[in-house]
Amino acid sequence: MEHLHILMILLLYFPIVLYCSTNKVGALDSNTDREALLHFKNMVYDPRKALSGWNSSSSHCTWFGVSCTNGDNRVSSLSLAGLGLSATAIPSQLSNLSTLTVLNLSHNLFYGQIPEEFSQLTLLQSIILGTNSINGTIPVGLSQCYGLRVIHLENNQLTGNLPSELGNLSRLEVLDVSMNNLTSIIPPTFGNLTSLSFLALARNQQDPKFYLQHVFIGLTDNDLSGELQTDIWTSLQQIFLANNKLDSFIPGSLSNASQIQQLDLSSNNLQGTLPLLGNMKNLVKLNLGVNNLFSTTELNLQVMNSLSNCTQLEYLMLNSNRLAGELPSSVANLSTNLKEFCLDDNFLSGRFPQGFERFQNLMALPIHKNSFTSEIPSSIGKLRNFRYLRRKETGSLDQFRKYLVILQDYIFLHWDITSSLVEFQ
Ligand SMILES: *[C@@H]1O[C@H](CO)[C@@H](O)[C@H](O)[C@H]1NC(C)=O
Ligand SMILES: *[C@@H]1O[C@H](CO)[C@@H](O)[C@H](O)[C@H]1NC(C)=O
Ligand SMILES: *[C@@H]1O[C@H](CO)[C@@H](O)[C@H](O)[C@H]1NC(C)=O
Ligand SMILES: *[C@@H]1O[C@H](CO)[C@@H](O)[C@H](O)[C@H]1NC(C)=O
Ligand SMILES: *[C@@H]1O[C@H](CO)[C@@H](O)[C@H](O)[C@H]1NC(C)=O
Ligand SMILES: *[C@@H]1O[C@H](CO)[C@@H](O)[C@H](O)[C@H]1NC(C)=O
Ligand SMILES: *[C@@H]1O[C@H](CO)[C@@H](O)[C@H](O)[C@H]1NC(C)=O
Ligand SMILES: *[C@@H]1O[C@H](CO)[C@@H](O)[C@H](O)[C@H]1NC(C)=O
Ligand SMILES: *[C@@H]1O[C@H](CO)[C@@H](O)[C@H](O)[C@H]1NC(C)=O
Ligand SMILES: *[C@@H]1O[C@H](CO)[C@@H](O)[C@H](O)[C@H]1NC(C)=O
Question: Which residues form the Leucine-rich repeat-containing N-terminal plant-type domain (predicted)?
């Protein structure tokens, strides 16, 4: 019993003692923070004397650009952007600031490489080194700074690949490595960066092409503008680029994205014609709504024919574009999994196609704000799951009838489940 007790104590305490004793050099405190900062000052050319107040007459926590955590005078933030600071290397002593969460040295003239020792900054959340003259590769060790949310390395002279290990940074939200000389390969591990909301890669070695090999890209609600880059689609499964300012044509190479399951490019300003996406055999959701895409009767035929290859398709949103001409009867060959098919707010005309009784899963078919000449085929009344031709309408049927009279081309259908009443016009 006694022995067991001792053994347990050993098991409980020995590893910790061992750990501490092997880390003697890492006895970092506010004094080593202060030394590290003074060392930094000595290494850096400071033409505007921004660091002149960094001297022994005051606590380093009061120094310009330095913030400390409450209580223990450990440095939590070092923010010295745009001060004309210059050095042949980013002083590696900064890695002694082991409680650092923010390092912002952007818009200066730092040369040399990002110190490997930064891997010791395990509490780091933001590393902002953009617009300097930093060269070499992105250190793999950064992937050990597990708290990193923001990495700004844009506008430097970095070379090499994006380390696949960065895919371990599960909290990463922002990665800007644009305007460097990186080779254009995004590691597959980046598919694990599910918090990533901003990924900027433009203007690197193979400008403007960056080969995306990972399975997910989520950049919705950003200020991404300009072109949809070509050749980036090869093995992507999900692309969410909605609510940006993309204003290019949809590149033909997108049709090569044969693995795509979800493609949401809605609410941009995409130009040109509706794309042909017949290679996307796994496509479940296609949202091209609220753009500036146009079509003709002939193109509608091609598009619907090509989409008939997408047998998994459930959501097809083409609303609020400039689609014109007639819809082909081959619309009826779209996937029988179709749940929502949004065509509203376009310039479509002619007879509305027949054959919708195939779509037993269809729930919504908003087609208002078009110029269809015929009534909706009564077959839609046979769809078991059907709710609305126009979604998000509330109120009684009587109100809707009034609405119908006012808007000539507004076609509404409501299937009241309780009474099996079908109304359409
Ligand atoms: C030290 O810094 C303070 C400002 O923080 C400044 O007033 C003082 O002149 C400096 N002393 C020396 C010796 O540079
Ligand atoms: C870095 O610091 C500068 C100057 O304080 C600031 O304008 C900039 O927003 C900071 N960068 C980031 C990404 O926080
Ligand atoms: C601070 O960093 C330097 C260089 O990286 C190192 O030699 C030194 O031992 C560190 N100081 C402490 C107290 O760990
Ligand atoms: C990076 O820049 C420094 C200073 O300009 C230079 O000495 C070094 O050779 C460069 N390293 C690489 C890998 O380009
Ligand atoms: C980080 O990622 C690499 C390769 O992407 C992987 O081999 C490694 O096990 C990961 N390391 C940790 C600590 O998660
Ligand atoms: C970028 O890399 C290429 C090939 O490695 C090299 O030829 C070129 O000089 C580099 N450009 C810059 C600006 O460093
Ligand atoms: C993503 O992370 C999981 C678990 O951390 C790992 O098993 C998987 O290999 C990673 N995927 C990629 C593409 O790195
Ligand atoms: C699709 O990919 C192949 C092979 O990479 C390429 O030759 C072809 O041009 C691509 N198609 C389009 C439309 O970009
Ligand atoms: C549909 O898929 C078949 C078989 O892969 C292919 O030959 C055909 O070109 C595709 N059709 C369209 C319209 O893309
Ligand atoms: C639907 O597809 C079948 C087989 O490809 C074809 O024979 C038929 O004509 C198509 N229907 C319409 C309405 O295009």
Answer: 30-69
